[in-house]
Write a structure and sequence with these properties.
Layout: H1 2-29, H2 36-43, H3 47-53, H4 57-79, H5 85-102, H6 104-115, H7 117-134, H8 144-163, H9 173-184, H10 192-204, H11 206-219
Helix pairs in contact: 1-2, 4-5, 4-6, 4-7, 4-11, 5-6, 5-11, 6-8, 7-8, 8-9
Length: 223
């Protein structure tokens, strides 16, 4: 039993080394320029061992992005356990955008993630599951396919918001996320008055959202 426990701990440590090394390289030189060979050299983990955990570089990057998404959802649940699901959903979307705005690694992760067909599809599936759980008791009566189609449209809009950070032409960040909220929140039953109220509340708790972003960044330093 002790030997099995040590083996499991060794595997977790090895996987963490791979992810930490990969994340550092992705941040320094971008996803496309990073190679498995470089990850091997930095992590000290043999190539065969890397392929034990991940099929390829995209699979490895996907693991980082999915961990980031899950951390975001978990933090929102911790901070707003008693809020209605529409408000929590709005906080989650704004937290993602503000994290992208203030941290180069998260910007890289989301931008490359949105640009990969495989990772983008996985992101949509992940948020579909999160949304289905979040709104399970809301009385919307949506099927899983209803959540999936809405999530696909929402993540497409989020991709545009993330891409804005690479534009030469400056984009008004506040106007952008305001418009995003007015587009996506009615999909989950919010009327115009509720959307306006949520946007106002989000502005009022801006320091709280900034703190959530800070926690998110701290938690994703070691995965």
């Amino acid at each position: 039993m002790e030997k099995r426990k040590q083996s499991a701990e060794h595997l977790r440590e090895m996987r963490s080394k791979i992810l930490t090394a990969a994340k550092g390289l992705f941040l320094e030189q971008g996803y496309k320029k990073t190679t498995i060979r470089q990850i091997v050299e930095r992590s000290g983990v043999l190539t065969g061992s890397i392929y034990h955990f991940f099929h390829n570089k995209e699979d490895l990057f996907q693991a980082l992005v999915m961990a980031l998404l899950q951390e975001c959802a978990d933090i929102i649940d911790e901070r707003f356990p008693d809020e209605n699901p529409v408000f929590k959903y709005a906080v989650m979307m704004l937290t993602e955008l503000k994290s992208v705005e203030c941290n180069a690694w998260i910007l890289e992760a989301y931008y490359e993630g949105y640009g990969s067909k495989v990772i983008f599809e996985r992101m949509v599936e992940h948020l579909t599951d999160v949304s289905a759980r979040m709104f399970a008791d809301s009385g919307l009566g949506y099927s899983h396919e209803d959540y999936y189609l809405r999530t696909l449209l929402i993540k497409g809009a989020m991709r545009s918001c993330v891409a804005e950070f690479y534009f030469v032409r400056p984009v008004d960040f506040q106007a952008s996320w305001h418009m995003l909220m007015r587009m996506i929140l009615p999909m989950y039953g919010a009327d115009e008055a509720e959307v306006s109220s949520i946007i106002q509340r989000l502005e009022e708790i801006d320091p709280v959202i900034d703190d959530i972003c800070r926690i998110l960044i701290e938690r994703t330093r070691v995965l």
